[in-house]
UniProtKB/TrEMBL annotation:
This is Pyrrolo-quinoline quinone repeat domain-containing protein. Residues 16-63, 100-122 are annotated as: Disordered. The keyword Kinase does not apply. Residues 135-288, 398-479 form the Pyrrolo-quinoline quinone repeat domain. Keywords: Membrane, Transmembrane, Transmembrane helix. SUPFAM superfamilies: Quinoprotein alcohol dehydrogenase-like. The chain crosses the membrane at residues 75-95. InterPro entries: PQQ_rpt_dom, Quinoprotein_ADH-like_sf, WD40/YVTN_repeat-like_dom_sf.
Length: 527
C-alpha cells in the first residue's frame, strides 16, 4: 500500500518503528512499563552573564545612524555560543537566579529601595525597586495575580504590589531546611501546585513534597509526598505539578502521580513509557482544564522525542507520537512544550531549534525552524535569568507568545541591526511578517489584545526611556510606541533581557530572575 501519510517539509509521518518525522499511536492504557531516570539533559550554561556596574543591559540603545558602532551582544553569543543555546534551549529557558529580601510589612522595611520616587520628570506611576539578594538564589517562575506580581524563588515565594512594587506577602518552605523546587505553570482559581524538598539554595534538592498554594493570600494547603514510580535510585531534584480540573497531575522523571485537588488524596500513579516500552522520562508538562500534555524521551530511542496526552483522571495515555529525523546526522533532542493552547512543542534540531504546532491527534500541523541550515535566522531563545538550572524536568518557556493561529518571537540582532518581531503562521509554519523600530531593539513579545501585539521596546541612542510598541497582528504595521522612564540607581536602564514581563492594566511590569548588585529587582512603566 502506498504511503498516504502527510509530508511535513522534508520529513514524513510514518507508522511503525521505521525512521520518520513521527508516528502516532493511540493507546487505551499507558504507564505499565518501568521508566528510567531521564538522561541526556545536561546542566546548561548560564549564557546571561553578569555585567560590570554602569552597563545598561544587553539591549542597550543601538548606535546612532549614520555612524553606527559595532557592539557585542553578551546574550546573543554569536555563532558557536548561539549553537550551544539552541542545543540546550529545551533545558534552561528562563535561566537561574533570584532571591528575596527578608520578610517585612513593606519593601522599605526589608531593605528594598524604590528608585526614582519623586525624581523630577519621572512618569506618574512608574517605579523601580532594588533588593539585596544572595547571589546563589534562583528564580523559578512568576504570575500576575489580582493587583500583585507573585514570584517563586528557591528560598521563598513573594507577592509584590503592581502599584509601587512593595512587598505584600512572602512565605518560605514549611519544613526546616527545605527549598521550593517545582511550581506549576498555571494559576487556577488563585491556586497553583508547588513542590519543595530538603536542600540548600543553589544545590540539588530532593524535590519530594507537593502542596497547593493560594497565590492571593500566600497560604499553603495540604502537603503530600510525591512518591512517583522510578526505575533507578536517587533523589529527583524537580517535579512538574499542574492543576487539571479537580486533580493535581505530577510528572517526575520516570513516573507520574495524580492527587485530589481538594485534599491531596492519592488517586493514581503511572510509570512513563512509550508504546508500552520502558526506559522513558518526562522532560516537560503543560495542561489545560481537561488534559495534560507531556514531552518525553526514552533511553532506547536516543534519536527520537515523543509528545503525548494524559487523562488526568487515570494517568493513562490517550494519544502519543514519536518524532525522529530522517537524516541520521541530525538529531532531535531535548523536547519541551511552549504552549498547551495552541499546542506547540519544540526541541533542538542539530545546532538549531525546531518548533511544531500539533493537532488533536498529536500530529504535526506546521513546523518552524531557527538557527538551522535550512533556516539560518536566529531567534531569541534566552532564559531571561529564570528557572532552576539543576532541574531534570520543569516547564521553562521561551520568550515567545502564541495566539490561536500565530507565533510571535524576536530576531537576534546581527552586527548593527536591531532586533525585530517576527510572526509565523501556525497553520503552515510560514513567516507572516517581520517588523520593528529602526532605532530600538524589540526585547520580547508579551501579550496580544484587541488584534494588537504588545512588545517591550528597548531604549534608543537618543532616549533611555523604555517603550511599549504595539503591532497590528495581521500586517505587522506599527500601531504606536509609548515611552516612559525606568532607570536604576546607577542611572542606567535595567538589563532588559534578564526580566520576565507582564502587561497588566496598560502597564508593563518586569520581574528580575538572576540576582544583581547593581540592577533593578523589579520595575513598572507606562500607563
Amino acid at each position: 500500500m502506498a504511503n498516504t501519510l502527510p509530508q511535513v517539509a522534508g520529513y514524513v509521518l510514518k507508522r511503525g518503528r521505521t525512521p520518520g518525522f513521527g508516528r502516532s499511536t493511540p493507546t487505551s492504557a499507558a504507564g505499565t512499563a518501568v521508566g528510567r531516570r531521564n538522561v541526556g539533559v545536561p546542566n546548561p550554561p548560564q549564557w546571561h552573564p553578569q555585567h560590570p556596574p554602569g552597563y545598561g543591559g544587553q539591549f542597550g540603545p543601538p548606535p546612532v545612524p549614520p555612524r553606527p558602532r559595532r557592539r557585542v551582544w553578551p546574550w546573543l553569543v554569536p555563532t558557536v555560543a548561539l549553537i550551544a543555546v539552541a542545543a540546550v534551549a529545551a533545558v534552561t529557558l528562563w535561566g537561574s537566579g533570584e532571591s528575596e529580601a527578608t520578610a517585612s510589612a513593606s519593601d522599605a522595611e526589608s531593605g528594598d529601595a524604590p528608585a526614582g520616587e519623586g525624581d523630577e520628570g519621572a512618569a506618574e506611576g512608574n517605579w523601580v525597586v532594588h533588593t539585596e539578594r544572595p547571589p546563589e538564589e534562583g528564580g523559578i517562575t512568576a504570575w500576575p495575580v489580582g493587583d500583585t506580581l507573585v514570584r517563586v524563588a528557591e528560598s521563598r515565594v513573594a507577592a509584590f504590589s503592581q502599584t509601587n512594587g512593595e512587598l505584600v506577602w512572602e512565605i518560605t518552605a514549611p519544613t526546616e531546611g527545605a527549598v521550593f523546587c517545582g511550581p506549576g505553570d498555571r494559576v487556577v482559581n488563585d491556586q497553583v501546585a508547588l513542590a519543595y524538598g530538603p536542600g540548600a539554595v543553589g544545590d540539588p534538592v530532593e524535590c519530594d513534597t507537593v502542596s497547593v498554594l493560594n497565590v492571593a493570600s500566600g497560604e499553603l494547603g495540604w502537603a503530600q509526598p510525591v512518591g512517583a514510580p522510578q526505575d533507578t535510585d536517587g533523589a529527583r531534584d524537580s517535579v512538574i505539578p499542574e492543576i487539571v480540573g479537580d486533580v493535581v497531575v505530577i510528572a517526575q522523571d520516570q513516573g507520574m502521580v495524580g492527587l485530589g485537588l481538594a485534599d491531596g488524596e492519592r488517586l493514581w500513579e503511572q510509570e512513563v513509557s512509550y508504546q508500552g516500552e520502558r526506559g522513558c522520562g518526562v522532560s516537560d508538562m503543560l495542561a489545560t482544564d481537561t488534559q495534560a500534555f507531556i514531552a518525553q524521551d526514552c533511553t532506547l530511542l536516543p534519536n527520537e522525542v515523543q509528545f503525548k496526552t494524559v487523562d488526568p483522571a487515570t494517568g493513562e495515555t490517550t494519544r502519543e507520537q514519536g518524532y525522529e529525523s530522517e537524516d541520521p546526522d541530525v538529531r532531535l533532542r531535548f523536547p519541551r512544550l511552549l504552549s498547551a493552547d495552541p499546542l506547540i512543542g519544540y526541541m533542538s534540531k542539530g545546532d538549531g531549534i525546531l518548533l511544531l504546532a500539533l493537532g488533536s491527534e498529536m500530529e504535526p500541523l506546521a513546523r518552524i525552524e531557527a538557527g538551522t541550515e535550512e533556516a539560518p535566522e536566529e531567534l531569541g531563545l534566552g532564559s531571561g535569568g529564570w528557572g532552576r538550572h539543576l532541574s531534570e524536568s520543569e516547564h521553562l518557556p521561551l520568550p515567545m507568545v502564541a495566539s490561536e493561529d500565530t507565533l510571535y518571537a524576536v530576531t537576534l540582532p546581527q552586527g548593527d541591526e536591531v532586533g525585530e518581531v517576527v510572526a509565523y503562521d501556525l497553520a503552515t509554519g510560514e513567516k507572516r511578517w517581520t517588523s520593528g523600530l529602526p532605532d530600538a531593539h524589540m526585547i520580547t513579545p508579551v501579550a496580544t489584545e484587541d488584534d494588537e501585539l504588545v512588545v517591550v521596546a528597548g531604549p534608543t541612542a537618543e532616549n533611555l526611556d523604555l517603550g511599549v510598541t504595539r503591532f497590528d497582528t495581521a500586517t505587522g504595521e506599527i500601531v504606536s510606541t509609548e515611552r516612559s522612564p525606568a532607570l536604576t540607581e546607577t542611572g542606567n536602564t535595567p538589563m532588559l533581557t534578564q526580566f520576565r514581563y507582564f502587561w497588566v492594566n496598560d502597564r508593563m511590569h518586569g520581574l528580575r530572575g538572576s540576582p544583581s548588585e547593581t540592577d533593578a529587582d523589579r520595575f513598572a512603566y507606562g500607563g
